[in-house]
């Protein structure tokens, strides 16, 4: 479900950017649709709204800020380069995750795991060097989103106290929406009012524009909801690996749907990166299995 919803989200999202290149505004819409969805769900009582106190709010604000920054920078990258390229850079997420686990959480990451991440870094570098849609805005934005999402998964684990993941994600969405509105208004507001909206209406008309924004917001919210529910059931690193395999799907589908031309080197680099992640996930899974056996022994 997570992969399927994500592929559809990525396709609609890029189609919007092809005729409406305003990533800050579109990011706000993604979150806004999700927040409306959450409020309606709470009103109906599916799920019941969990009460929130100031202590939990303190735990959730860092998660939501990382979520907002990661979300906006991902979208800036999607708007400026090919979807397949953004996802190739974002395959570096386990590398950032491992670094954060070792240096921030103080968990020992064994050498074999670090070595398995080398092909991921090499593959992403190879793909970047010959990517036909390459530009620095797209590259740096995707890198910032990697760092933001790494911090998000660390803070999320700390914040997943007694509240269920559906409620946690609803509160995160509300705070992230509040964080995203000011930069969108400041950075894109004047352009949108001058010609952004006029241009889009001339190109596709109000009906298509609003329905695209509604559906992209729905798929964004649902895929994140399913991803959060998955995170509740697995370790952060396993989640990071699941995230990378998801990228294989998205890269494949986006190349087919948008007919992206990719150079041979970019293709090989992407395969090496994904291969590295596969080795990494295998070693990580074995380590977790051994830990479990030691606990039960």
What would your notes on this structure say?
With 297 residues, the chain is an all-alpha fold. It is built from 10 helices and no strands. The protein has helices spanning 2-19, 23-44, 54-80, 83-89, 93-103, 111-129, 136-159, 165-233, 236-258, 264-296. The mean pLDDT is 87.
Question: How do the helices and strands line up, and which of them pair or pack?
Answer:
Layout: H1 2-19, H2 23-44, H3 54-80, H4 83-89, H5 93-103, H6 111-129, H7 136-159, H8 165-233, H9 236-258, H10 264-296
Short description:
The chain has helices at 2-19, 23-44, 54-80, 83-89, 93-103, 111-129, 136-159, 165-233, 236-258, 264-296.
Helix content: over 70%
Largest sheet: none
Q: Total helix count?
A: 10
Tally of extended strands? Answer: 0
Mean pLDDT: 87
The low-confidence parts are none
Elements, N to C (H/E): HHHHHHHHHH
Q: Approximately how much beta-strand content do the residues carry?
A: under 5%
Shape: globular
For the terminal residues, how far apart are their CA atoms?
Answer: 36 Å
Based on CA atoms alone, the radius of gyration comes out at: 19 Å
Structural class: mainly alpha
What key phrases describe this protein's structure?
mainly alpha; globular; about 300 residues
